[in-house]
Design a protein that fits this description.
heterodimer; A: about 190 residues; mainly alpha; Arc Repressor Mutant, subunit A; about 75% helix; globular; B: alpha+beta; 6-stranded antiparallel sheet; 6 helices; elongated
């Protein structure tokens, strides 16, 4: 029956996507939560339940990976909204705890310093930087997740790094940003890696 | 300073071993459970909206959907009851009862709450016997009268005569719009009214038909009636008319309600034309 073979095909496609992306999505959620692995596993399951419900909308590879990150992003945003609605105070305390103590590596002062600096970035810039540096997405993929252009992602990442350099440099060692002309003088491939 | 390296090192996920994925069957089972839960939540949301008297979905749609579901579940008695209620009233009514299914026209027994909702009005009888009337639009005065009588109130619902003034105007709290105001064209004589003490004991006016100004939200005409305080032989008179204006802004109640009045008997007072 054509209907059942179509259903079987989409089930197989979902299963492949699930197996290939589970760890990546787990990492994505873990990086943006307070380090409770059980809660992370629940949220990751929720991401794949949403993907399963919308399996007709899953684009063909290689576009399916950023699509799944987009689903994960919305599930996380929903989760954070629900949590903040439940209790704004509780949510604030938890966020502080998340920044301060509970994620893996938060006991290392050097890592903590970098994470604290990242918290100071503008949300859009931080999100773009994390997608590229932590989740290993290309600019084009991150653009699909964030719903902007690859150029916008490149610009946000560039600005995020410049700001991080500024925050993390000791006051005596602060040097002015390289002249914009210098960056533009580089070949395009080098620029995208900055 | 190698910023790329610093950021990569700060990755919380780099420091733990991410577990292997559970079997895909677990996700499939979760997906099925989630679908069942969503259906239940949708049903609960509709029931809650109806119970609270805040019906954002037109009552006809709710009735249509619930009828389809009940027909599928093969409970012909209740589906038939709803069909009869819809046929008896111009606007379809949805009846919710704490006890056995109640329909308009049947006397509600004391001690359990019941709510009748239509697109135009809601009548909610609380367990203590008080009846709350909420008016949204002018429609089906006969159905409203019948429902109130089913709640043990000797009610007389009449259309309030009105006249249209072409003069454009605006309302407090709304942007200026070209309005055609519809106002009552007569006022009812008070000769048959019960004494003021009785009026106060029987009728509590929660809101009259104006929304709160300056964006405070729409307050639908809402009255609480205490049937126990009505003297023997008395009647509750509720004049009720079409909107106070044509083409009201969204959220503005399309209704003009007079004060509910307790009459000494069933004689409807004369409506004396308003002269300007």
């Amino acid at each position: 029956m054509p209907g059942s073979s179509h259903a079987q095909g989409s089930d197989d496609r979902f299963e492949t996507l699930y197996r290939n992306s589970y760890k990546a999505i787990f990492g994505y959620v873990l990086r943006r939560s307070d380090g409770d692995l059980d809660a992370v596993a629940d949220l990751v399951a929720e991401v794949f339940v949403v993907a399963l419900r919308r399996h007709d909308a899953i684009p063909p590879p290689p576009l399916d990976r950023p699509w799944l990150y987009g689903v994960a992003r919305r599930v996380l945003l929903d989760h954070q909204r629900r949590r903040s609605r439940r209790s704004r105070l509780e949510s604030r305390l938890r966020t502080q705890a998340a920044v301060g103590e509970t994620r893996p590596g938060d006991d290392e002062p050097s890592l903590l310093r970098v994470r604290a600096a990242m918290e100071q970035l503008r949300p859009a810039a931080r999100e773009a930087l994390q997608l590229v540096a932590w989740d290993g997405l290309s600019h084009a993929e991150a653009a699909q997740v964030l719903g902007c252009t690859p150029n916008a992602v490149a610009l946000r990442v560039h600005k995020a790094k410049a700001r991080l350099r500024d925050i993390l440099s000791p006051p005596s060692m602060k040097v002015p940003d390289p002249a914009p002309g210098l960056t533009h003088a580089l070949p395009r491939s080098s620029r995208s890696r900055i | 300073m190698n910023i790329d390296q610093l950021v990569r090192d700060a990755d919380p996920a780099a420091l733990i071993t991410i577990p292997d994925p559970p079997h895909v069957g677990a996700i499939m089972a979760l997906g099925r459970a989630s679908q069942r839960r969503r259906r239940r939540q949708l049903g609960a949301a509709v029931r809650e909206a109806v119970r609270g008297g805040q019906l954002d979905i037109p009552a006809e749609q709710v009735v249509h959907r619930s009828r389809a579901i009940r027909a599928r579940r093969r409970i012909p008695a209740l589906a038939g009851g709803l069909a009869a209620a819809a046929a008896a009233t111009a606007a379809a009514a949805l009846v919710l009862a704490g006890g056995p299914a109640a329909v308009p026209g049947r006397q509600a027994t004391a001690g359990h709450a019941r709510t009748v909702v239509t697109a135009a009005w809601t009548v909610r009888e609380a367990a203590d016997g008080t009846v709350t009337i909420t008016l949204r639009e002018y429609a089906d005065p006969a159905g409203l009268q019948q429902t109130l009588r089913a709640d043990g109130i000797n009610a007389i619902v009449r259309r309030m005569p009105s006249q249209t003034t072409a003069r454009p105007g605006s309302l407090p709290g709304f942007p200026k719009l070209p309005l055609r105001k519809v106002a009552p064209s007569c006022s009812y004589a008070t000769t048959n009214n019960a004494p003021p003490a009785v009026q106060r004991a029987v009728v509590t006016i929660v809101f009259q038909d104006f929304p709160a100004p300056h964006g405070g939200g729409t307050r639908l005409s809402t009255f609480i009636i205490h049937p126990g305080a009505m003297p023997r032989g008395s009647a509750l008179f509720l004049p009720y008319g079409t909107g106070i204006m044509l083409a009201p802004p969204p959220g503005y109640p399309h209704v003009k309600a007079g004060d509910p009045v307790v009459l000494n008997n069933d004689t409807v007072p004369a409506c004396v034309p308003v002269t300007k």
